[in-house]
Specification:
17 helices; alpha/beta; globular
């Protein structure tokens, strides 16, 4: 257990104590909460302004739940008129980061702590889950809940670590330059993994080159003793080798060459003899820099997950985990976080694949290729449905990217396309222009209309993929089609 006094938190966060909070009051760091409903006796509640509500409005509820004090941006009064026991700071979220940085520093002083940072436009959460599976088989490991990967989620992940923790995995997302540098400054990772640079949040970043610049902030933050784990298949990631003082460990499939300026014996983790089984789950031989090789049969769906599997294997290798232990841990691992190629077999023979947590053009294409493969290789071949919603935050490329995906659906010979929402309508137009006709491609305005159509037209043997950006809500539609009602849960997230 890591405990900090109110006085120490005030010093770390440049805050001041209210007269009603004793400087000696102890807080269990693991119990710090940003949701008043998760507060318990003795914990610290962080009152932060949000998009839809202000955490200061729930200070009284947190105190009634038993918290010993709050971290707030202004002094508030209790119902009896007394001052709420508070550490008052200028910026509550920034204060969380300062506290988290102190926790990491203290844990490093107390023992051995390995910190791994993971970033990329797609695959962060799956790679995090895979790496957690490997490292937790070796030593106590803390990893983010769901997709906690921002300025709030990273500190909350750190707060769950204690003296027994040996491995801390931190997922790092960003919507602008400087964000990953800030997160890396909090946790100071020894290993930094960059999966790829895609079009996710291109509108917010102002273009893919700015995305590459932002993702590379992770390897820039590594010390010379650290290791940058980089994807050979992404040219923008390859260039990041020139932006780090750390050593570089590459990963890539068989045949993907090292950059021209890399040493011939540069360390690489590779996937050899890549193939899929009847369920479209990847199988390959996992080869490590020492030449050892082990068979891996993944429980994930889709060849695109080979990148995530290799990245997790390489990160574990960088931390000294033996190759045979890495392969054993990866073998059979399926999805752990919700709505990531989540497969459900209905009693009537309909297969539902719910991948509607995040979407960008690259991940859309990967999911569609997997859907097409599942339908084509089945005996007998099965009818396939692509139920697609909008990809948000693509900026000026949005219409063109949606239109292109409609064309991809037709070229992959997917049986039916159901497009939901006005922002995604260009997918339907792209499919029609590419040669779809009749009711092969349909556009509807709402998920309710989509639900009615699917209920009427799905038949035994169909495979239906749900894919969209999170805010489009198709993950809940996928749950309704799979189980008859939304399942809920697994909502912990940040970008």
């Amino acid at each position: 257990m890591i405990e900090l006094t109110a006085g120490r938190i005030a010093t770390l966060s440049n805050g001041r104590l209210s007269p009603t909070l004793d400087a000696a009051t102890l807080f269990d760091v693991a119990a710090i909460a940003t949701d008043s409903r998760q507060c318990r006796a003795g914990s610290l509640y962080v009152a932060k302004p949000g998009e839809h509500s202000d955490g200061h409005d729930f200070i009284e509820a947190a105190l009634l739940a038993g918290v010993s004090g709050v971290l707030a941006e202004r002094q508030t009064l209790r119902e009896d008129g007394s001052a709420a026991p508070a550490i008052v700071v200028q910026d509550a979220v920034q204060a969380m980061g300062l506290i988290a940085a102190e926790v990491v520093r203290e844990l490093r002083e107390r023992g051995t702590l390995n910190v791994v940072g993971i970033t990329g436009s797609a695959g962060k959460t799956t790679t995090k889950d895979l790496l957690e599976g490997i490292l937790s088989s070796q030593a106590p490991t803390v990893a983010p809940i769901g997709s906690f990967n921002g300025e709030i989620g990273v500190p909350l992940t750190v707060f769950r670590a204690d003296e027994t923790t040996r491995n801390l995995i931190v997922e790092m997302g960003a919507t602008g330059r400087g964000h990953i540098a800030y997160l890396a400054g909090i946790v100071r990772p020894a290993v930094g993994v960059v999966l790829g640079v895609g079009h996710a949040h291109a509108g917010e970043f102002g273009g893919i080159d700015n995305i590459a610049q932002a993702k590379g902030e992770l390897v820039e933050a590594l010390e010379p003793t650290g290791i940058a784990v980089l994807n050979l298949a992404d040219s923008r990631v390859v260039e990041m080798a020139h932006r780090t003082k750390a050593g570089v460990l590459w990963f890539g499939e068989e045949g993907v060459e090292l950059p021209a300026d890399a040493a011939a014996d540069a360390p690489v983790v590779r996937a050899l003899n890549v193939r899929t089984d009847a369920l479209a789950q990847p199988e390959f031989d996992l080869q490590f820099p020492d030449g050892s090789s082990y068979p891996v049969a993944s429980g994930l769906i889709g060849l695109h997950h080979v990148t995530n599997l290799l990245a997790a294997a390489a990160a574990a290798w960088a931390l000294g985990v033996p190759g045979d232990a890495i392969a054993r841990a990866l073998h059979g691992q399926g999805p752990k976080s919700r709505w990531r190629m989540e497969r459900v077999e209905r009693a009537d023979g309909v297969t539902v694949i719910n991948d509607a947590y995040n979407a960008n053009p690259e991940s859309m294409r990967a999911a569609l290729r997997t859907l097409a493969e599942l339908g084509r290789t089945a005996e007998p071949p099965r009818r396939t449905w692509a139920v697609l919603g909008p990809m948000f935050e693509l900026g000026e490329d949005s219409i063109a990217e949606h239109h292109a995906l409609g064309q991809v659906v037709v070229r992959l010979n997917i049986s039916r396309l159901l497009v939901i929402g006005a922002p995604a309508r260009a997918m339907h137009i792209g499919a029609v222009n590419e040669g779809s006709w009749g009711d092969e491609s349909v556009h509807v305005a709402t998920v309710e209309e989509a639900y009615e159509l699917l209920n009427e037209e799905l038949r035994p043997g169909d495979i239906v993929l749900f894919k969209s950006s999170r805010d489009a809500g198709l993950r809940h539609l996928g749950d309704q089609i799979a189980w008859g009602q939304p399942e809920g849960g697994g909502e912990a997230s940040e970008r």
